[in-house]
Amino acid sequence: MNYNSRNKFCYKCDSDIYENEYQYSTNEFGIALCRNCQNWNRAKLSGKTTQEAINLFLVLKRRGVPAELEKFDGYKTIDIAIPEAKLNIEVDGQHHNYNPNQALSDLQRTMHSFRKGFYTVRIPNSLIRDNLYEAAEILLDILIEGRDRNLYDI
Ligand SMILES: [Zn+2]
């Protein structure tokens, strides 16, 4: 009995994938994707999206979260938005921590979004690279906690 046989599926479309595709995709993208979805991923990367944002988005979607990748809020593009939960997720590179102007600009954006009723969670992309699934589980806990407090209804 091969317990891992069902682990070889595409995280985006759920189709079964072969071992070599699985190995290639996890090495190249950090997540298992079929050939079609690898092309989708490459197209996303040619824009401003990072691999870390894509992977977190895919894991959240798979867990049933109504997340949107690269949502424009009228002012700026949010990496991952969950409008129903009024939660924005920004997956940030190191310059967001080390560059004071960037950090201040981020905080101002957080405030502007908060005024409109949206809370922003900032996640370092290093965390996504090292602990993608654990980070996604904690975000799920936040979403469930917010729902239980009737902050929103999803
Ligand atoms: Zn796929």
Question: Which descriptors would you attach to this protein?
Answer:
4 strands; binds zinc ion; alpha+beta; single chain; 154 residues; 4-stranded mixed β-sheet
Number of strands: 4
- What is Rg? 16 Å
Head-to-tail CA distance between termini: 38 Å
Given the helix and strand composition, which structural class is it? Answer: alpha+beta
Helix content: 40-55%
Strand content: 5-15%
Major sheet details: 4 strands, mixed
Shape: globular
The strands making up the biggest β-sheet line up spatially as 1-2-3-4
3D architecture notes:
This protein is of the alpha+beta class and 154 residues long. Helix content is 51%, strand content 15%. It is built from six helices and four strands. It has helices at residues 19-29, 35-45, 51-62, 95-98, 100-115, 125-148; strands spanning 68-72, 77-82, 87-92, 119-124. The model has no long low-confidence stretch (mean pLDDT 91). Bound molecules: zinc ion. The site of zinc ion (ZN) has 8 residues, from helix 2.
Task: Summarize the structure in short.
Helix content is 51%, strand content 15%.
Summarize the SSE layout with pairings.
Blueprint (H helix, E strand, L loop, with lengths): L18 H11 L5 H11 L5 H12 L5 E5 L4 E6 L4 E6 L2 H4 L1 H16 L3 E6 H24 L6
Parallel strand pairs: 3-4
Antiparallel strand pairs: 1-2, 2-3
The site of zinc ion (ZN) has 8 residues, from helix 2.
